[in-house]
């Protein structure tokens, strides 16, 4: 019995679980605020993300400054007036995956639930996601939407018509084994 | 013994689980922080000028800025002149960003019917923990077209002056930005031989944000002595409030300079604050984009 414990203990201490962690440093997150007055699009292509398939956990983190807008002035306003990237430089997501992720190549539809932190506020978010397991890589896609007001982002009445109350967010990332 | 071993096993297993749960976001965050080290500092100033003095800012690539600068008459004109409101001096300007660093501009002031053309280049951009200041170079050519029938010799060359400014700015905190601006002006024609044709000035200015979209601004332009001797020129000082609303910046200003471009506010200011030679006015900018 002692031997058995020792073996289990040794295996837990020294043998890493099979490589089921996936990571990326160039995931893409974009948002699109659409109103009759103005369309605002931004994309961040330097999103760090990781999935642990065995634990079914997932995490994202990004720098707000890496969101690129087509208009420089919009980008400046996003950083200076709305998201306040000097005070709150990052947005982070940490969540769990429900649903089956197979070990053979294929598309797996899962549900992701977790907590999104940005502008100093943490809110629960959940979204359906699609994980496409391919040879040597895992491609993840998801979409959800957020309300700026949930994250204490104040929009002055003067520009209220130009910024959508609910903003769809697109996530896509190509993970490689860690 | 078995019990202890079992407990120990649980403890190790538990630790391992916790360590892994933490590390997913934690390890991502750590590598992201590495990337974060040298970020370009943006939004040093809201507008391309404090009141008259240029800032390090310029319109972004393919973005056009239209600006109206307007000054009423002197406050000491009294009620007869409605404290200056009866008179007005104006400048229209267009500035266009060729790249995010290089901008070109044209403008026209009613004072002396002056045309101006300018170039602004962001030489250096402040970054966190590495480059302490932003530096922009500003070159301005002015040509006045006011007719003087008594001076037929005034040709286009004589009417031209050049202003070069090196703008050194630092955003100290999210609210406070300051800049120092040495200036060199060259006049192709000066009134007398005693007046220097190369004239130097030093300006300082800054802004203090008091809400996310409003700030108080100030600038002081010091003309080095013994350069302009035939007219009694004074240093110009200006105070303003910046109000930003989306694509517009409104600046309400008080200044003792009637001129709004290089040689005028730097080397041709004759009024002083003490005597009430104060001009109230505003600058309004509007940004247009030509990207896609």
TrEMBL record, chain A:
Cited InterPro entries: Lipid/polyisoprenoid-bd_YceI, TTHA0802/YceI-like_sf
Span of domain Lipid/polyisoprenoid-binding YceI-like: 21-176
Database matches in SMART domains: YceI
PANTHER family named in the record: PROTEIN YCEI (PTHR34406)
The protein, known as: YceI family protein
Organism annotation: Chitinophaga oryziterrae
Automatic annotation (TrEMBL), chain B:
Cited Pfam families: DUF5777
Keywords: Signal
Domain DUF5777: 45-288
InterPro entries associated with the record: DUF5777
Signal peptide extent: 1-19
Official protein name in the record: DUF5777 domain-containing protein
């Amino acid at each position: 019995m002692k031997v058995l414990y020792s073996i289990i203990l040794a295996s837990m201490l020294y043998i890493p679980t099979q490589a089921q962690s996936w990571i990326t440093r160039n995931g893409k997150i974009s948002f699109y605020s659409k109103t009759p007055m103005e369309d605002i699009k931004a994309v961040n292509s330097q999103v760090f993300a990781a999935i642990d398939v065995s634990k079914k956990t997932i995490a994202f983190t990004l720098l707000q400054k890496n969101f690129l807008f087509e208009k420089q002035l919009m980008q400046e306003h996003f950083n200076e007036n709305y998201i306040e990237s000097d005070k709150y430089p990052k947005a982070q997501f940490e969540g769990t995956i429900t649903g089956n992720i197979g070990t053979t190549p294929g598309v797996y539809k899962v549900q992701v639930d977790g907590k999104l932190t940005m502008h100093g506020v943490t809110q629960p978010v959940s979204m359906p996601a699609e994980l496409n397991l391919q040879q040597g890589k895992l491609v993840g896609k998801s979409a959800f939407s957020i309300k700026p007001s949930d994250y204490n982002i104040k929009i002055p009445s003067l520009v209220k018509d130009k910024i959508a109350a609910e903003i769809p967010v697109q996530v896509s990332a190509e993970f490689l084994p860690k | 013994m078995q019990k202890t071993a079992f407990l120990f096993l649980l403890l190790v297993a538990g630790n391992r689980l916790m360590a892994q749960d933490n590390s997913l976001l934690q390890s991502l965050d750590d590598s992201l922080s590495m990337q974060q080290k040298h970020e370009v500092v943006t939004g040093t100033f809201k507008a391309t000028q404090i009141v008259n003095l240029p800032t390090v800012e310029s319109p972004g690539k393919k973005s056009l800025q239209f600006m109206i600068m307007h000054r009423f008459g002197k406050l000491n004109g009294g009620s007869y002149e409605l404290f200056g409101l009866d008179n007005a001096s104006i400048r229209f300007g267009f500035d266009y960003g060729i790249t995010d660093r290089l901008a070109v501009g044209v403008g026209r002031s009613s004072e002396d019917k002056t045309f101006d053309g300018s170039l602004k280049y962001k030489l250096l951009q402040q970054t966190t923990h590495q480059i302490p200041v932003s530096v922009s170079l500003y070159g301005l050519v002015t040509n006045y077209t006011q007719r003087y029938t008594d001076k037929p010799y005034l040709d286009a060359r004589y009417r031209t002056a050049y202003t070069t400014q090196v703008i050194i700015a630092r955003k100290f905190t999210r609210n406070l930005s300051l800049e120092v601006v040495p200036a060199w002006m060259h006049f192709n024609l000066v009134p007398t031989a005693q007046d220097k044709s190369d004239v130097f000035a030093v300006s300082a200015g800054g802004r203090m944000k008091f809400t996310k979209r409003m700030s108080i601004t100030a600038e002081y332009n010091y003309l080095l002595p013994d350069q302009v001797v035939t007219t009694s020129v004074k240093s110009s000082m200006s105070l303003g409030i910046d109000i930003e609303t989306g694509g517009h910046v409104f600046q309400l200003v008080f200044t003792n300079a009637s001129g709004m471009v290089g040689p005028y506010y730097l080397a041709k200011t004759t009024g002083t604050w003490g005597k009430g030679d104060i001009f109230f006015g505003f600058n309004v900018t509007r940004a247009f984009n030509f990207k896609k």
